[in-house]
Amino acid sequence: EVQLVESGGNLIQPGGSLRLSCAASGFIVSSNYMSWVRQAPGKGLEWVSIIYPGGGTYYAGSVKDRFSISRDNSKNTLYLQMNSLRGEDTALYYCARGVTMIIGNGLDVWGQGTTVTVSS
Amino acid sequence: QSALTQPASVSGSPGQSITISCTGTSSDVGGYNYVSWYQQHPGEAPKLMIYGVTNRPSGVSNRFSGSKSGNTASLTISGLQAGDEADYYCSSYTSTGTLYVIFGGGTRLTVL
User: Fold this and answer.
1) Which of A31, A57, B3, B70 is deepest in the core (most CB within 10 A)?
2) In sequence order, what are the beta bridge partners of A5?
3) Best interface-test mutation with A: which of B100, B103, B107 has the largest number of A CBs within 10 A?
């Protein structure tokens, strides 16, 4: 079964760091473009970051230079390293798989999400 | 950069058809055939319903269809069912600003 399972979300103080993980099964992470998307409480979806099979990475301006997407091919796992966290980063974070190799063309497999709360 | 524009809510009766619009610019919806639509039920992850403007992933009912004209994309749901009641989001590749992917603000579909 094709599946994504996120973990690592927590309550963290402003300025702190957190690393989210997304374990994949049923497909190979490094052969697909993988994305992180977040959803603030009661709000809509917001794209965060993408990593391509070749390793190329892209970020939304709101997280650029603070967040870093990566993967561990041996563990078939995607990561999101989040530094200098702010209150506006509070959200449910989803990892998702690109349906094609074209950025922005759709995400067909989603995890259940992991919650990040940034508060003192 | 502003989100794509969707109506906040739409409604319809069982069996009817409804259409949700998604308006952007020539730098996103109008400039590329990379529009996708997602369905999200409360407490659940989004589900891809349409990608590449008109394509349905395997397993998605053919009651769902997508189209685009100019800077506006549309999702049409025919033969409305109670289970279609959910939030719907459009998304597109964008070539401006500090984003590569932009979402709409979401539309709440109520089945009367």
Assistant:
1) B3
2) A23
3) B100
| Closest residue to A103, CB basis, from B38, B46, B100 | B100
Residue A59 makes CB contacts below 8 A (sequence gap 6+) with A48, A49, A67, A69
Scanning chain A, the segments in alpha helix (DSSP H) are none
Mean pLDDT within B11-15: 97
β-partners of residue B48 are B38
Tokens of A69: 């997407």
CB contacts, 8 Å: A34 with chain B: none
Handedness of CA A72, A50, A45, B66 (dihedral sign): negative
Query: Which three-class secondary structure state does DSSP give residue B82?
Result: helix
